[in-house]
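User:
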Amino acid sequence: MKIVADTNLYGVQTTFERIGELVLVPGRELNKSHLKDAEALLVRSITRVDADLLEASSIKFVGTFTSGADHIDNTYLENKGIAFADAKGSNANAVVDYCFAALAYCIKMKSLVLEDCKVGIVGGGHVGGLFAEKLRRLNVEVLICDPPLQDSVTEPALEKYCPIEAIMQCDVVSLHVPLTKDNEHATYGLLNFERLSALPQSALLINTCRGSVVDENALVELLDQRPDLTCIVDVWENEPVTNSALVQRVDIATPHIAGYSMEAKRTAMVRIFEQIQKKFGLPVQSQTICEKDKEVKITGNLKEDPWAIVLELFPLCSLSEKFKESHKHENIADAFDQLRRNMVGRREFNEIMLPGTNLTEMQRVVLQVLGVKFY
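Assistant: Predicted structure:
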């Protein structure tokens, strides 16, 4: 079996070369000429998989190592009988870590008082649901808007959902939806100027799902009128050529790295490996394909404030500074990809161990909810 895969997929060579001939190609360069005689294709979100790529190929399986699948033409795959597998939910914990770092930034830099906030989450799936669960463990009030999920449940579960209008009145709004265009609950351009304008004074907007869920031009216009708002943006409409005006205007800008972690990549790789073996009827191989990395043990003195510790563990400010600076002097697309590659060694909070001797009860509560362990 011939497998064509994005060169930058985590663990791809040591894992998939065990079950077939493996051809590695940079994801942004992958085209139909690479797929001759191939039966399986493994991609990231940067590769559009549709008729233009697959027509006249012998591909029988497509796997994306991402949670989002808006780069995949599922209708085409179904019509052609091509099996598809994604890694939905594999990066949930990594994205939630990013969201808590965003909150930590606002707590430390914007005087946000989390316990007094109402957090509105758009999208209650793997990521939004986990974020909501951890916030509630910190006694934070959470509202969720998710029409597709709402349509699938009955009373009394319906009570947990609310309309988008209620979300836009919250102190913090965090977006966790897939990008969809042609369905009843399309999310493309979901937050237009009118909805964005409804944000209350000093509100925080976090976008870690897809850039096109927010009207970027409307957001730039609004931020020129509303300096009270705080925006933390990780995803962009035309990645890797990002909107420089918006990058410079938001408080924190990062190059689509919220879901980037060693743990998320490993989980995605294992899931796709299992699915490709199932599709081709291969003997199931041991999941020692990629051994779990050891926990990170951090020593030394840490700041007393738990949210300051969070920002030490996930340095959003310095990441944002590098990204914004790249828009002034460098090729935007190349800088975007390079900054993402620099995050390949990032560890999730639940793989970090801190000295617990001098921690206060408040520090312990916050950090334990985030998954940090103590020694």
